[in-house]
């Protein structure tokens, strides 16, 4: 074993050419990611609506810190309680779980997070309001509450209007809860490719959420925040009067699916794979379903538009046709269609600059499903 190998086994890859990494590995182009963070922060600078970056995209604490440092951000959004726990452990103090936190085990964990951070959760059921109030009061903590409104996605959320007011009245009279406002996510409009259609759908979807906000305010209930939005709707949702926070996630790393809609952001994330077999114009890579999220389409080969992945059904293999002059052992970069599910599969993010590994960032919340 030479010095170089020992160094790698010890985990110190700094300075190594990308192609020497063991594969599959998750790569992040640091300069591209930094430009993405800056671009988004610049858009929100000086606006009434501020950013609350969605941690679910990358689940990496270092990247989350850089998102806040880039500016125009009020705190972090999480999809899961486990993500909020990780961020709270690492000193993040303003957290929103943009989801329902349900079940005794989770509520016990929620109050622990509330001891360390200002934590807010979405609710859409009175029984849940009662349950959170009970555990929070017993633990002597306060939990921030956002009433989730279904604005067309058909996922979670109460209907707009009177049901929001009814639930708000229940929240404000219960102990240990602080009604912070409203959550509304336009998930049904996020992947509309046509920008005009998307803008129209988003604006229409938010009307009932804004009206609900005004309804609460007319009844003397303060709405400190209306939170929603995504990477592909930041310019639309982020400019709607009455929306206070934008929960964009994917803009940080990007993937090819979002790149189609957001040319101003760069695909900074890729999966490094290696050719393990080659026959004629067909090569096989050492990564499959277990190494690249593909809900929005098959991965693409970076910088080789002619290479084609005909299907992606193996756990650990990827067949590529029409390959250029690849040889067995050669490293190639795959661009996944979905960054969020890809990051969840890895424990480290290999950060590169000028073709070499510049840093290795842990993905602390990878695999946190609870
Ligand atoms: C509640 C919520 N907010 C925001 C987002 C937006 O994230 P992204 O910018 O990655 O699309 C999502 C995506 O699924 C979401 O579920």
Question: What can be said about this structure in brief?
Answer:
With 370 residues, the protein is α/β, with parallel strands linked by helices.
Describe this structure in words.
This protein has 2 domains: 3-28 and 263-362, D-serine dehydratase-like domain (Lyase, Ornithine Decarboxylase, Chain A, domain 1, Beta Barrel), CATH 2.40.37; 30-252, Alpha-Beta Barrel (TIM Barrel). Helices cover 31% and strands 22% of the residues. It has helices at 3-9, 30-44, 61-69, 81-89, 104-116, 126-139, 162-172, 195-218, 234-237, 256-259, 339-343, and strands spanning 25-29, 50-51, 76-78, 94-100, 118-123, 143-149, 177-184, 225-228, 245-246, 269-279, 282-285, 300-301, 318-321, 331-335, 348-353, 356-362. Helix 5 (104-116) crosses helix 6 (126-139). The longest helix is centred in the middle third of the chain and has 24 residues, at 195-218. Bound molecules: pyridoxal-5'-phosphate. Pyridoxal-5'-phosphate binds next to loops.
